Amino acid sequence: MQDWDNDLPFGLPFEIGEYHDRMKRVKAAMAEAGLDLLMVTSPENIYWLTGYRTTGYYVYQIFLLPLEGTPQFVTSRLEHECVRALSWIKTGLTVFMGEDEVAITLQGLEATGADCKQIGYEERGFWLPPRILDAVRATWGRGATMPAGHVLENARRIKSAAEIDAIREAARIASVGMRAGLEAVVPGKTENQVAGDIYQALMHEGGEHPAGGPYVVTGPRSAVTHMLPERAVIEPGHTVYFEVGGCYKRYSGSLMRMASVGKPGNEAAHRAATSIEALEAMLGTIRPGVTPQDVDRAGRTIMKKGGMGEEFRHRAGYSLGVAFAPGWGEGLVDDIAEGNERPLEAGEVFHLVPMAGFRGTGNMGFSETVLVTENGCQALTDAPRELHICDL
């Protein structure tokens, strides 16, 4: 019988050396920031550091990483089986239903053996309950805590070779799903039926449960942000909006395409051509040393020129990598947006999304997952970059 406390019965998503390198980089950044301990609460960062993963992150979980000492998980007793089976770090405490996670978290901090003079926390995430932070401050003093999400966000920005391989596979899976969806469009089908064809293709190709979507929305409904399939029927004259994310080892690759049900009118054809031109302008701008702001402006200029500036309400792109539902973006890691002047570096990965939403007619957008290379960039997703026309 296997002892999950000592073994990795299902392996790790990456070689153990990858995790040691991540931990080394994070601890170096902690030392530079003067941190004795880092409270890691987002599912993406916990997974990135340890391999621990679960869909049960809707209940309390935290990973306590000391600069010197013993890391400690605090999870529900049920989810602690994921720690034992999936993480290369096994130490931690459990919270049973009805027990006080605040008290047990404080015990966990003590168990790390850290000095706890300076404790960092993820200030921009959604996953740190205020009462946990209040209790830590009540115990060690308000001055003992500091925002430190940048420690993890900066460490995740440049992808390793192993991470890039995982994103490539996720992008390939997404591309297969997108092609299946476009081929499935016929009048009379529902959004759900087409989305089902996409999901089947994603799973058949070895994908995991995606961090979002797939988004398949027809006609005027597609102008409503992040609308999911709701049984609407695809009709002649509609444009159908697709956004598909593939997932592999919890890494994402995503792309956006459009279909016209019947020959598109002049307006739809113009909007499609403008979005594609904006996307290609962004692709032509990306290279190391260029700022995300430069890339955003390249795409936004084309969208404005094509009369779509007001409807382009989105940042022009965002980092891609580790992701859990409800979204596949790493916007906290890096953004293609006005005001972001941090130069791009080789090894970053982005989803470029020049998309416009028109009330009354729907969305129009085309996107790619893109790797920043030494000399420019490479699109990792692969589906025809054109308005797909479904014959009536």
Describe the structure.
- This protein is α+β, with helices and mostly antiparallel strands.
- The chain has 2 domains: 16-156, Creatine Amidinohydrolase, Chain A, domain 1 (3-Layer(aba) Sandwich), CATH 3.40.350.10; 158-390, Creatine Amidinohydrolase, CATH 3.90.230.10.
- The protein is 35% helix and 20% strand.
- It has 10 helices and 17 strands.
- The protein has helices at residues 16-33, 43-50, 80-86, 101-112, 130-140, 149-157, 161-184, 191-204, 266-285, 292-305, and strands spanning 37-40, 61-66, 72-76, 92-95, 119-121, 145-147, 215-218, 239-248, 251-261, 317-319, 335-336, 349-352, 355-358, 362-365, 368-372, 377-379, 388-390.
- It has a 6-stranded mixed beta sheet. Strands 11-10-12-15-16 form a 5-stranded antiparallel beta sheet. A 4-stranded mixed beta sheet has the order 7-8-9-17.
- Strand 5 (119-121), helix 5 and strand 6 form a beta-alpha-beta unit.
- Helix 4 crosses helix 5 and helix 9 packs antiparallel against helix 10 (292-305).
- The longest helix is centred in the middle third of the chain and has 24 residues, at 161-184.
- The mean pLDDT is 96.
Radius of gyration: 23 Å
What structural class results from the helix and strand content?
Answer: alpha+beta
Overall outline:
globular
Could you tell me the CATH topology label of the largest domain.
Creatine Amidinohydrolase
Provide the domain count: 2
CATH architecture of the largest domain: Alpha-Beta Complex
Runs with pLDDT <50, length 5+? none
Distance between the termini: 60 Å
Report the top-level CATH class of the largest domain.
Alpha Beta
Order of helices and strands: HEHEEHEHEHEHHHEEEHHEEEEEEEE
Name the CATH homologous superfamily of the largest domain. Answer: Creatinase/methionine aminopeptidase superfamily
Strand content: 15-25%
Biggest beta-sheet profile: 6 strands, mixed
Secondary structure tally: strands: 17
Mean pLDDT comes to 96
Helix content range of the residues, please?
A: 25-40%
Number of helices: 10
